[in-house]
TrEMBL record:
InterPro entries in UniProt: CoaB-like_sf (IPR035929), CoaBC (IPR005252), DNA/pantothenate-metab_flavo_C (IPR007085), Flavin_trans-like (IPR036551), Flavoprotein (IPR003382)
Gene responsible for this protein: coaBC
Name of the molecule in the record: Coenzyme A biosynthesis bifunctional protein CoaBC
Required co-factors: FMN; Mg(2+)
Family assignment from sequence similarity: In the C-terminal section; belongs to the PPC synthetase family.
GO molecular function per UniProt: FMN binding; metal ion binding; phosphopantothenate--cysteine ligase activity; phosphopantothenoylcysteine decarboxylase activity
Length: 394
């Protein structure tokens, strides 16, 4: 996606450097257009090095090429960060007194601004009126946040973090084919207590579940994550319900299942739990001493929500197996017949596969066992393929 990245003349311009870096890393073609005051904070060589494109800043260079028209018309998205009080005012008034504001009047693509200024400037009626005007025109306003400002002051007016901008840009390029839908996703691994300091668990990091949450959010869904143990944070915009144990995860999922349009059971749920949890630490008596741990099976949450009477939602399960090839698919087909879900994502796990890694290889089966999609790549790539099949099923 071609991004026109405008930079206002504020101290938060230093944070915009990282935002540009993140967008470039995500594969976007980023063209930075700083105001003259922005260049007082971060120079053109920095923007060119980070964006990998020449920096455009002068309205009167290449006049014959009508550069401001060309730049604005070519953009798929405009991002303004930081959006200072002055820049917001000039945007609201439709001014075209520099290359950035002139390009904005030509751009017909979505526009996202990240305001940054002192608290009093943000709260001033003129600024609030200008922001309201931009909002009414369809401009998306991201922030500002609350935190440390210039000097010793703190309060509202801090520019959102670069990662927040990157997330919003990611969401802007996706179709909103889950708008108005509630998607419930279980993620991470459950841990079953043996005693106060030990548990039964697995190596699930929650990365695949969080990638699914990111993709669903990007496509306009309301997302609730029912989280076991996670090694990664939940994405901005998702509601998170903590569920460390299988029973607490079951209670959360079943309470949400009826109102959800989609339930994705991506969590690595423990099949068994200790029959008896001691209230004190189990002590080793002698070297070579043996003990026996009696286990009982946990409830089958996927089967329970899949077999609800008059179910009207899409339920997606996961099958993590140590088999591969045809044997892996057969295990998946047997599981989807038993569980009764609509879709099943089947993947191979092991010492160097699946759990905890950034890549995954998944086949998506329908209720008849047909392979609808096979994808190998990042966990976000896998999430996109799974959500595609969910949308088609819906």
């Amino acid at each position: 996606m071609r991004v026109l990245f405008g930079v206002g003349g504020g101290i938060a311009a230093y944070k915009a450097v990282q935002a540009v870096r993140l967008l470039v890393r995500a594969g976007h073609d980023v063209h930075v257009v700083p105001t003259e005051n922005a260049l007082r904070f971060v120079g053109a060589p920095t923007w060119e090095a980070i964006s990998r494109n020449p920096v455009d800043r002068d309205l009167f260079t290449d006049v014959a090429g009508v550069r401001h028209v060309r730049m604005g018309a070519a953009a798929d998205l405009v991002v303004i960060a930081p959006a200072t009080a002055d820049l917001i005012a000039r945007m609201a008034q439709g001014r075209a007194d520099d290359l950035l504001t002139a390009s904005l009047l030509v751009a017909e693509c979505p526009v996202l601004i990240a305001p940054a200024m002192h608290s009093q400037m943000w709260r001033h009626p003129a600024t609030q009126a200008n922001v309201a005007t931009l909002h009414d025109r369809g401009v998306q306003v991201l922030g500002p946040g609350i935190g440390a400002l210039t000097g010793p002051d703190e309060g509202v007016g801090r520019m959102v973090e670069p990662e927040d901008i990157a997330v919003e840009v990611d969401r802007a390029q996706h179709p909103k084919d889950l708008a108005g839908r509630l998607v419930v996703i279980s993620a991470g691994g459950t841990r079953e207590r043996i005693d106060p300091v030990r548990y039964l668990g697995n190596d699930s990091s929650g990365k695949q579940g969080m990638a699914l949450a990111e993709e669903a959010l990007a496509r306009g869904a309301e997302v609730v994550v029912v989280a076991g143990h996670l090694d990664v944070p939940a994405p901005r915009g998702a509601e998170v319900i903590s569920a460390r144990y299988t029973e607490s995860m079951r209670q959360a999922i079943t309470s949400l299942a009826d109102e959800a349009d989609v339930v994705i059971m991506a969590a690595a749920i423990a099949d068994y739990r200790p029959a008896n949890q001691t209230t004190t630490k189990i002590k080793k008596i002698d070297e070579g001493d043996e003990t026996t741990l009696r286990l009982v099976s946990n409830p089958d949450i996927l089967s329970e929500i899949s077999h609800r009477p008059d179910r009207g939602n899409v339920v997606v399960g996961f099958a993590a197996e140590t088999a591969s090839g045809a044997a892996l698919l057969e295990l998946g087909r047997a599981k989807i017949r038993r569980k009764g879900c609509d879709l099943l994502a089947v993947n191979e796990v092991g010492e160097e596969k699946g759990f905890g890694r950034d890549e995954n290889t998944v086949s998506v089966l329908d209720a008849s066992g047909e392979v609808l999609a096979a994808v190998s790549g990042t966990k976000r790539d896998v999430a996109e393929a799974i959500i595609d099949q969910i949308v088609r099923t819906l």
